[in-house]
């Protein structure tokens, strides 16, 4: 079956944003933990190592279980809003496109062979700021940007496949008519659970050792199409379309 839709994760897939965002996120996480008497301090680096691919709501839900404290729904929603505001401020100053992503998006947009969409765990406002700051917003209509934190009746986060299932329903397409590009295990797991063919992107990881580690983890999910730079995208997509994976 021919591929019709290409579904892009945002953070550290088309936009270099995770380091910037997790630095702001860590500050708020530490404030919440301290308020509950928990003597734990995260840095942006340690938070990303533990929670890459999760949005703030998902992180806080895990931390409540890990450290045995409870936030009310109202408190959690307020913290989620605060985190988005803080992250957006940093992204407006520092977000950049991932290397080679602009060239790929430009070609896909000009050719008009595929429909393009962004499918992220992050809050919709954050995603919109990220792609606007990098000039990528011109490739996606407003209703082609989806957020697990914002676009669903019940907010969630990858690895829950709900946001991908929502997109499949929205477009009335089968999973095999789409290809997803994800850089994290949580995102990759969400795509796999939705049965969408997947390209694993490891170009945002700084060392070859880390790229090899994530490649092995993708393989454990059954994802054997791995892209180390966006210049490899056409080859990866061709392999999926030809059924060679």
From TrEMBL:
Any one GO MF annotation of this record:
phosphoglycolate phosphatase activity
Superkingdom assignment: Eukaryota
- According to its record, what are the GO cellular component terms? cytosol
Q: What processes in GO biological process is this protein linked to? A: DNA repair
Q: Entry's InterPro entries?
A: HAD-like_hydrolase_sf, HAD-like_sf, HAD-SF_hydro_IA, HAD_2, HAD_sf, PGP-like_dom2
**Which Pfam families would you find in this protein's record?**
HAD_2
Name of the featured protein: HAD hydrolase, family IA
